[in-house]
Specification:
single chain; alpha+beta; 6-stranded mixed beta sheet; 4-stranded antiparallel beta sheet; 1 helix; 10 strands
Amino acid sequence: MMRKLFAPLALVAVLLVLGSAATVKADDWDQKTAFTINQPVSIPGHVVLPAGSYVIKRLEATTPVVQILNSTETRVFATLMPVPDFVQQPPDKPTFTFQEMPEGSAAVLRTWHYPGSQVGYEFVNPNTD
């Protein structure tokens, strides 16, 4: 009787493990996000990104350090240490917020939230706070 019961239970356990592993994305740890801006955007470190396409991603899974790179990831524009920005409802797509500046000045990158994560990143820019 135990043998007849063991095989189906073992199969169910294997399927549960495989099913839960299938929902985890191997590259989500870096939260790599490609984005395009249609106007200049200022980022901390006195860097202004011209209109174009870029990549933002975490450097490590254990720290909030992020990099902003060109779209081919061959040039680093900034390596930043943002502060956590918690949200109740995680976004379902990458979300950025910007601080508006006076006419003629570049907008300032304020926050970045990765889809499905309640913890986003707030970029503190001492020149605008």
